[in-house]
Every structure is written in structure tokens, then in C-alpha cells.
TrEMBL record:
Single GO biological process annotation from the record: 'de novo' IMP biosynthetic process
Cited SUPFAM superfamilies: PurM C-terminal domain-like (SSF56042), PurM N-terminal domain-like (SSF55326)
Annotated Gene Ontology cellular component terms: cytosol
Protein's UniProt name: phosphoribosylformylglycinamidine cyclo-ligase
Source species of the chain: Acorus calamus (Sweet flag)
Pfam families in alphabetical order: AIRS, AIRS_C
Keyword Ligase found: yes
Length: 271
């Protein structure tokens, strides 16, 4: 909906690819190919071109072939100007190289890779906050040092595609589990990679939360727990690694943060 309101359509295709390939890479797999479906009531060639350009961009970022897709015009199914995007990706990994979290132990380290913002989750809450704020999407993002960035641009910043970065880290060893921080935030996504009986301690001040999240929380009067359950809070991918591997990753210049550790007990706690 925000894309329709702002006219920003070139990032949506990147988001579509990102949500597929970022999930695939959590198993240590390399994306091979992607297919999409663009459905609309009446085809607007200019808009469709921007969307598909984003899909192509996303595939290039992830070294993934765009094998093809479907463009479906379904008059009466969509309001004028609306469209719906779906897609899927297929990847490959050797059976003995699958990353499944089974070797995670207490004392392993959590490494966070920064996000570009909201990514592709939490937009129902975003729209509610936006309505409460009374601000236009064309206004500057409050509390942001870069005054040239509008609220709409910040909210629609394309999801980071982590494929090349994560596969490079994985190739050097020591990665035991990977969590893509999507819907459910830290609260739901990190624990699912752990064996039973293990949880996460997050150092909540170990990275700077981006201004867009601070604005959402302040205007929406949202509790910390709900923010962490809904948004990525500036960390889009979490790697569970051995302590030795963590030192190498942090020194390799990936822009990564040491954000926590694996503990006994289940769930996520914050320090």
C-alpha cells in the first residue's frame, strides 16, 4: 500500500526476491533460480517495468537466475493501479553441509548483520502508526541526520539481500545456525534455530537502532517487547557461531555486530 501511495515501485521487486533468497541462505544453501507472478487488474507498463527491474536487481544481487514469470491481468479482481506480487526461489546445498542448528551449544556467540530498515515485515503496525502521526510520506523522517530522506523512502528502503555476505562467512567455517529476522522479530526467529534447552541473551545496546524504529516506537507508544516481536530493530540476519569464528567475522569488515550469546534455558532475554 505504501508503494501505491508514494509511487516508489522499484524497491518492491527487490523485497520479493530478498524474502525468498534470505530464507534459503539460512540453511547454507546457494539460491539457483527465481520465478515471479505479477497480477493486476489492468497492466500499467511503466509501473510493471519498475517492479520487474527490482526483481532483476534482486536476482543479480543474489547471483540467482530469473528463469521467468507470469503477468496476469484479472479485471475486476484488483482496484485500478493495484498489483500483487508472488515469487519463489530454489537453492542447493550438499546434504552434509546443511546448517540446521543441531551443533549449537551454550557459549556460542550471536553475530548480527545490519538491516536497511523495516525490510518487509510489520507494515500493518507501520500504517497504524503513520495514521496516528498525521505525517505525510513525503515529509522528512523525524530524528534522522540525513534530512534528504523522506518517511516514505525510509519505510520502503529495499530489504538487504544477505546471500553473498552470508555464504562468504559460511565458507570459512564456524557457523552453526542462521536466523533471518522477519515477522516475529528476535522473539520468534532466533529461538527456532536452537536445540531444545537453549536460549539467547541479547546485548540490547550493542548496535544502534535506526531512526525509523525509534520514530515508530515513540509515535505508536509501543512497548519494547512488542517492537522486538514485530520488527528487526536494525538487525536483519543473526548468525550463531563458535567464539573463534566470531573473532574472524568481526575483524573481516562485514559490518557485523556481536549482539549476544547462547545460554541455558529457552527464549530470548535482553541485557
Amino acid at each position: 500500500m505504501l508503494a501505491f501511495e508514494t509511487g516508489i515501485h522499484d524497491t518492491i521487486g527487490i523485497d520479493l526476491v530478498a524474502m525468498s533468497v534470505n530464507d534459503i541462505v539460512t540453511s547454507g544453501a546457494k539460491p539457483l533460480f527465481f520465478l515471479d507472478c505479477y497480477s493486476t487488474g489492468r497492466l500499467d507498463v511503466d509501473v510493471a517495468e519498475k517492479v520487474i527491474k527490482g526483481i532483476v536487481d534482486g536476482c543479480q544481487q543474489s547471483d540467482c537466475a530469473l528463469l521467468g514469470g507470469e503477468t496476469a491481468e484479472m479485471s475486476g479482481m484488483y482496484k485500478d493501479g493495484e498489483y500483487d506480487l508472488t515469487g519463489f526461489a530454489v537453492g542447493i546445498v550438499k546434504k552434509d553441509a546443511v546448517i540446521d542448528g543441531k551443533n549449537i551449544v551454550e557459549g556460542d556467540v550471536l553475530i548480527g548483520l545490519p538491516s536497511s530498515g523495516v525490510h518487509s515485515n510489520g507494515f500493518s503496525l507501520v500504517r497504524s502508526v503513520l495514521a496516528r502521526s498525521g505525517l505525510s510520506l513525503n515529509e522528512q523522517l523525524p530524528g534522522n541526520d540525513d534530512k534528504s530522506i523522506t518517511l516514505g523512502e525510509a519505510l520502503l528502503a529495499p530489504t538487504i539481500i544477505y546471500v553473498k555476505q552470508v555464504l562468504d562467512i559460511v565458507s570459512k567455517g564456524g557457523v552453526k545456525g542462521i536466523a533471518h529476522i522477519t515477522g516475529g522479530g528476535f522473539t520468534d526467529n532466533i529461538p527456532r534455530v536452537f536445540p531444545a534447552g537453549l536460549g539467547a541473551l541479547i546485548y540490547k545496546d550493542s548496535w544502534e537502532v535506526p531512526p525509523v524504529f525509534r520514530w515508530i516506537q515513540e509515535v505508536g507508544k509501543i512497548e519494547d517487547a512488542e517492537m522486538r516481536r514485530t520488527f528487526n530493530m536494525g538487525i536483519g540476519m543473526v548468525l550463531v557461531v563458535s567464539p573463534d569464528a566470531s573473532k574472524r567475522i568481526l575483524e573481516d569488515g562485514h559490518g557485523a555486530f556481536l549482539i549476544g550469546e547462547v545460554t541455558k534455558g529457552e527464549g530470548v532475554t535482553y541485557l
